[in-house]
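Notes, p. 3: input format for complexes.
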Amino acid sequence: MSDCIFCKIANGEFNTPFVYETEDLVAFNDINPKADYHVLVLPKKHIESLNEVDDEKLLAKLMMGVKAVTEKLGLKSFKTVINTGREAGQEVFHLHIHVLSGNIKGV
Ligand code: AMP
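Output follows (107 residues plus adenosine monophosphate):
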């Protein structure tokens, strides 16, 4: 989607360094980290939220992406969060999984 910040990041428009990337996913550091490690894992394809997901393979890929990120960063203990909908705290309407580890302050 043309005005989606995460689509732009995933397309490389801001030269954001990726912690991890596959054909379908990217992961990058949260701009406002709530922990020592705070990485966002997301599909390159624009999907607003978990409510719009109908592709179980993509969900599996996302979770495997989380594992790949935590393994790459050597994280053994971490928290994953998916905010779905404005009332639940979703601010960016492009599905993403927060991965937090070390001195977690909450999401
Ligand atoms: P959520 O509230 O679950 O939608 O989370 C959105 C997250 O995206 C927040 O933790 C923001 O700090 C983060 N964020 C917003 N803009 C950017 C950006 N340009 N680069 C990296 N992270 C961002």
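The chain has one domain: 5-101.
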